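ARCHIVE CARD
Drawer: 12
Card no.: 0347
Subject: one protein chain, sequence and derived structure
Cross-reference: see card 0346
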Amino acid sequence: MPTSTFEFQVEARQLLQLMIHSVYSNKDVFLRELVSNASDALDKLRLEKLRDDALDADVSELHIEIDADQDARTLTVRDNGIGMSYDEVGQLIGTIANSGTAKFLQEMKEAQDAAGAEGLIGQFGVGFYSGFMVADEVTVVTRRAGESQGTRWASRGEGTYTLETVDDAPQGTSVTLHLKPADPENQLHDYTSPWKIKEIIKRYSDFITWPIRMVSEPPAAADDSDQAPEPETLNSMKALWARSREEVSDEEYHELYKHIGHDWRDPLETIRLQAEGTFEYQALLFLPAHAPHDLFTRDFQRGVQLYVKRVFIMDDCEALLPPYLRFVKGVVDAADLSLNVSREILQQDRQIERMRRRLTKKVLSTVKELMTKDQDRYATFWREFGTALKEGLVTDSENRETILTVASFASTHHDTEPTTLQQYVERMRDGQDDIYYLTGESRQAIENSPHMEAFRDRGIEVLLLTDPVDEVWVDAVGEFDGKKLRSVAKGEIDLDAKDEDTSDDEREKQTEQYAELLGWMKEQLDGDIKEVRLSSRLTVSPACIVSDAQDLTATLENMYRAMGQEVPHAKRILELNPEHQLVKGLNQAYKEREDRTELAESAELLHSLAVLAEGGQPKDPARFVKLMTDRLERTL
């Protein structure tokens, strides 16, 4: 059959130029695409031979071969796989001629930015055409297994391509790229260089099942000038995740982790997962033993490596794990995924979401297993990554209960050992309905807080929460095991109601005694507080500041403002200790003195001291210092 020339449609020609010049951000991926196609062809031949034993095809030594000719500036990728018939070449390689439509190109023109255009391009699988990024001409010679004649396809990627039959084509497919002229100033992209080819294969195709070979030059010291060059296998073919657990040693797993995690230490735990059925994938994940220094920075590179049929797609695939598991390293290898043309951005679909959900549950179940079987390693994990994991209590309602179960917190029950919420519940006193907690900058600051006094005196356990995320998740969660999570610094907490030594009559009498003072102080401090009331949480300090049960804490307000979010300032409540001598003296002075100017200053000082006690700052520090100095002078 003579050579036939076919002309691309106008739209298809425009589309091809777009593929060549606009889609791929890294030109090295052209070799990944060609090797991946070759691997698919070998897989298909093996399957076809199993289905039809009479198929006239050689399957004794299936492999991929790369041949670089530096003088001719050609790069050839060949395989001895299934190959293509004349009609299949037109249908498969020529698919792009049927892909471009006026409507599609119009949508491309209407896209407002490159990212939008790339999203549209992702509808078409044309990885083969990436070869035109580096080549002026591409030639394909192929013969389908079981057929006697082959086909030759060629194009310069401009407007036409040719097809012809050939008689001497070997089984399989050979793609030859006639590379563009070399750039002397940019040797990093010399695709005839053996080291460059090896680098690309190692990065993208190291775990492909079939051997990838390249003919190397014979040793320079060899005396026999007729010695044939030796083929060198470039890929390891050792996809640890595809081998059974018994076939892989811990040392091999650890070496893989160190390579992909950029860590010199062994991982804390190795996690294997194999999903079978309508959508198949394998995962090999690692929990590091130490948190990286930039775990909580905005630029932290999160995500695991993504492979499709052992072909490397991307380093940090964020779509496969939620942000609060960003410390997890590893590999996920899927049998099939919806990818865009460059395989650089995943299409968000149900398969991705299913993988994400299952991988997340697997990681959390592994942490739970550590908690029950190996307390030392669990303690290491929580110390390093507990703060990040608690972010999931806010963002992942589906797995919230599991995270609550594996979480542990500092507590007044023990000076050094953390406690789980379940352990807290088991230790609750008779009649205690709530799980009490207090947030703050440090354990020491929380333990010295006035809010803790009554709880400490009565031996009621309080969780000590010192991470910034603790301010957020406690409100998002609300309760555990039917027990409400309650801040000791918010709302009214009447511990005296459970105290048999304090009667209702005594409380009512106390309220009557201080009623006038409380009302007067509310008027004096009206710009700063919403209420003044007696406290049941104080035993040593004269006063403290608390928030209403539904209000944001002062710390959370400051966090939101630091993030650029405007939140209304909530007035807070001043609580007085009726048993403190300072408060008693203030009440007595209020009843006895008609001139209350000095008394107003005392009320202002008392409020400022309460603010300072919780780590805040008086509204007017200079005035506070002056008032305090005057009082000290009068006492000398």
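Annotation on reverse: Confidence is low (pLDDT under 50) at residues 96-105, 112-125. Residues 350-373 form the longest helix (24 residues).
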